[in-house]
Design goal:
With 851 residues, this protein is mostly beta strands. Helices cover 4% and strands 52% of the residues. The chain is extended, with a radius of gyration of 41 Å. GO terms for molecular function: fimbrial usher porin activity. Residues 1-35 form the signal peptide.
Length: 851
């Protein structure tokens, strides 16, 4: 290579080096305009001087997360400085410095690296500096504020019976309900009328009207509180009794917010070093997937589960690396979440002889309960009752025992001014066969005994106590629950003090179920119940059961019941086989404790919920043969049932008619019986519009533009929409869908304004008969709509009147006005024209020139 060639090579190489140095942003310094000419090879290149003071504009990346904002970073004396406000915004703690430049390299626990290739300042901080991410489950359903329109509802259920040897009777259950945004006012009762006696019956039937309940109730969704005035049933704990009262009740009502979970769910906490995807698997099934930033996180967005199981958390970073962690868990729905409270305060009078008389109330009384979640593992509860001559108080606790179930305990004390009534004894016992305690908190009011009054009339003070202890555990493999309640002779509560009923002295119940060979091979259940009554008599029952699925949807059920201490046992074997037609056949064999067998055979089909025919046929053989046949006809407007049952030749005939009448939106509606909430869709007097509820067609609007949807769950956010596709082209709706939540026992009018509009495609020509130029502005003067002319001189307008006036600004600046009429009976887009803009008015056409 010649010397001249070498000079050109080094001159070009030097220029490229300068270009590269400037583009990296590492240093900025003046350069000479031209390089020197070399007569020989130059000296070896030397390193460029390092800049000790420079400003870069970079994005900050903190623990792998960036907001993509470019900020100034000062490089000074081998250190990087950033404004304190910028660092605080990116979760970098500035060691107490509130303003000015902060040396991030000098912060304790912080590591900063400059990445010149991507122009980023990469900062690593301790994980606990980053904000905690709480992936919560409170929005599994979503909250939609509930609404209520104003209206009236009448529910009726008329039942007619004609026994073989008895009185023909008509009994009609009636409910009147007035609802609005301020609550619901409800009254229920039965009207009974005997139609004459037959056979040996004396016709002693209580005729007339019997009132059941009358009350006003309002639910406050924001505070989760329900207010009720009138008749009600007070709430109870698993170790207390409910009381039927009348007065004022203020209580917590979690049902108004189905999106809230009241019990503590599974919580998993961890730390993500970099942005991560977290997948949650419960018992092998994927439950959720979430994207998380770097930093600590708590995962609680799990479905509503109960019992024991195993959770597997899988984290996946941007490079696809996965870490799997499995942890056992136990969720108990008997507990309250930490900080959550539940209460029921009832003040009034205890109601007696309910269902016998319309109004029989005792002295003023009080009943109250309160529960509070101390932690996610401990819930405390309390209960108090008081009336004239009676005071009661008690405390209880529910404790989660790690992953091994829930332990419950309670203690109550009562003091009464009179001893409990007893048959043939004086204050020695205080119980009946009312086993009012169970793990589900549902009173079991069976075997209530009304002893004869105490003839000596003693009215001295008597105290007593009650203790309960229980344990429960639920898992996929087996479930176990046990409960013992024990009472001293003098213990009383409102239910026993204001009536002749007695509380059991002691009650034990243990239930166990398992699938030893897997769920597909059936479930075995064992139950033991021991009740010691007020006279120290014992009722001990042992129950064994086995159920499993067979082929298809068919199933089998076997149960054996043994009363310990008595001879014999009872048993039942049953097979259920669904058919493709929607019907099902049931065949079984039953044995009573005396050793008598009965074969059973039945076939039935449930009436479709949207209307249709249902029926039921049943036969029982053995010593007491029994037959039954009935049919059900369900429509949108009512349900009609009827049939017969009884022994051969001694049948009882019966019939039933039930339904509802609603007045709302200035219209009356007939419907099948409405037990909860409902919706009336209003399409603005336009008939025949298809209505969908939760993507299921409910029908078409009537001549008034209304449709009643009677089967709505209160407080559930449901989707209601209309289908405008089958409607004519000249029919439009301002909106076609809505998410609505309805208050309990109320109805809501959902409006979808559907109306017929006049639309037209108008062809416009100029005075030479040619289509107007594309883009010419056209205005309809009545509606003030403006559009532009398209290809072929076409202009489209909707929402027109029978007579319309167009104002057209032409290319030469002249304004032409043209009037035209539309046919109001047309059901399509009319084709109008061609209309011509002329220099002089012709046949109703008006032309106006600009001045």
């Amino acid at each position: 290579m010649s010397l001249q060639h070498l000079r050109g090579y080094y001159r070009q190489s030097f220029r490229l080096c300068l270009i590269y140095a400037g583009s990296t942003g590492l240093s900025v310094f003046p350069l000479s305009a031209q390089a020197d000419e070399y007569g020989a090879l130059p000296d070896a290149p030397r390193a460029a001087p390092v800049s000790l003071d420079a400003t870069y504009y970079l994005t900050l990346v903190v623990n792998g997360q960036t907001d993509n904002q470019v900020v100034p970073v000062v490089y000074r004396n081998n250190a990087y400085f950033v404004e304190s406000g910028v660092l605080a915004k990116n979760h970098v703690r500035t060691d107490g410095q509130q303003q000015g430049l902060v040396n991030i390299s000098a912060l304790p626990g912080v590591k900063a690296t400059y990445n010149a290739a991507v122009q980023q300042m990469v900062i690593q901080v301790p994980d606990d500096w980053l904000p905690k991410q709480d992936v919560s489950s409170d929005n599994l359903i979503g909250y939609t504020p509930a609404k209520s329109s104003t209206g009236l509802l009448l529910n009726y259920d008329a039942y007619y019976t004609d026994p073989h040897d008895g009185t023909r009777l008509v009994a009609t259950l009636l409910e009147q309900r007035l609802f609005s945004s301020v609550g619901i006012l409800t009254n229920t009762g039965t009207f009974r009328e005997s139609l004459g006696s037959s056979g040996n019956d004396n016709g002693n039937v209580q005729n007339g009207y019997l009132r059941y309940d009358t009350f006003w109730r309002y639910n406050d969704e924001q505070r989760l509180v329900s207010y009720q005035v009138g008749d009600f049933v007070s709430n109870s704990l698993t170790w207390s009794n409910s009381a039927r009262m009348a007065g004022l009740r203020i209580s917590r009502n979690f049902s108004v917010r189905p999106d809230l979970v009241t019990y503590p769910l599974l919580q998993y906490s961890g730390t993500a070093a970099v942005p991560t995807t977290v997948d949650l698997f419960l018992n092998g099934y994927k439950a959720s997937s979430n994207n998380l930033n770097s930093g600590p996180f708590t995962l609680t967005n799990v479905p509503y589960i109960n019992g024991a199981g195993e959770a597997t958390v899988v984290t996946t970073d941007a490079l696809g690396r996965q870490i799997s962690t499995s942890v056992p868990f136990y969720v108990s729905n008997t507990l309250l979440r930490k900080g959550l409270s539940d209460f029921d305060l009832s003040l009034g009078a205890v109601r007696k002889n309910y269902g016998i008389t319309s109004g029989d109330y005792s002295d003023a009384a009080f009943s109250g309960i309160y529960r509070y979640g101390i932690s996610n593992f401990l819930t405390l509860s309390s209960h108090g009752e008081a009336t004239q001559g009676l005071g009661l108080g008690g405390l209880g606790a529910d404790v989660a025992v790690g992953h091994w179930g829930t332990f419950s305990v309670s203690a109550s004390q009562s003091r009464a001014s009179r001893a409990p009534v007893d048959s043939g004894e004086i204050d020695t016992d205080n119980n009946n066969a009312n086993t009012n305690l169970n793990v589900n908190g549902v009173p079991n009011n069976n075997g209530m005994i009304s002893p004869s009054p105490n003839s000596n009339g003693d009215t001295h003070e008597k105290s007593g106590n009650q203790y309960t202890v229980g344990y429960s555990y639920y898992s996929n493999r087996f479930s176990l629950s046990a409960l013992r309640s024990s009472r001293s002779p003098g213990f009383q509560d409102l239910s026993s003090y204001t009536s002749d009923t007695r509380l059991s002295r002691q009650a034990d119940q243990v239930t166990f179920s398992t699938s030893p060979f897997g769920p597909s091979n059936g479930t075995v259940g064992i139950g033991y119940y021991d009740v010691e009554a007020y006279d120290r008599s014992h009722t001990r029952l042992l129950n064994l059961s086995y159920s499993r699925s067979l082929w298809g949807q068919s199933s089998m059920f076997l149960s054996l019941n043994k009363t310990l201490g008595d001879s014999g046992y009872s048993a039942q074997l049953q097979f259920i086989v669904p058919l493709d037609s929607g019907a099902s056949v049931t065949a079984g064999l039953q044995r009573d404790s005396a050793g008598n067998y009965q074969e059973q055979l039945s076939a039935s089909k449930t009436a479709p919920t949207d209307g249709g025919l249902g029926w039921n046929l049943a036969y029982t053989g053995g010593r007491d043969p029994y037959q039954q046949a009935d049919a059900t006809w369900k429509t949108r407007y009512a349900t009609l049932e009827g049939g017969l049952y009884g022994e051969t030749g001694k049948y009882t005939n019966w019939a039933d008619l039930s339904g509802s009448v609603v007045f709302m939106a200035n219209d009356f509606f007939l419907s099948d019986k409405i037990n909860d909430a409902f919706i009336v869709v209003d399409t603005g007097n336009y008939a025949g519009v298809p209505v969908m509820y939760e993507n299921q067609k409910q029908g078409n609007t009537d001549k008034n533009g209304h449709l009643l949807i009677p089967t709505v769950s209160s407080y559930y956010p449901a989707k209601v929409d209309i289908d405008t596709l089958p409607l004519p082209a000249d029919v439009v709706a301002t909106r076609v869908t809505d998410n609505i939540s309805v208050r309990q026992g109320s109805g809501v009018v959902v409006e979808f304004k559907v109306k017929k509009v006049l639309s037209a495609n108008i062809t416009l020509h100029n005075s030479q008969g040619q289509p107007l130029k594309i883009g010419t502005v056209v205005t309809e003067q009545n509606s003030q709509q403006t559009t532009v002319v398209g290809y072929g001189g076409l202009a489209y307008f909707s929402n027109l009147a029978p007579h319309n006036m167009l104002s057209i600004r032409q290319e030469d600046g002249a304004v032409c006005r043209i009037g035209f009429d539309l046919n109001v009976n047309s059901h399509s887009i009319e084709q109008v024209g061609p209309l011509v803009c002329r220099n002089a008015p012709v046949s109703g056409e008006i032309n106006e020139q600009n001045p």
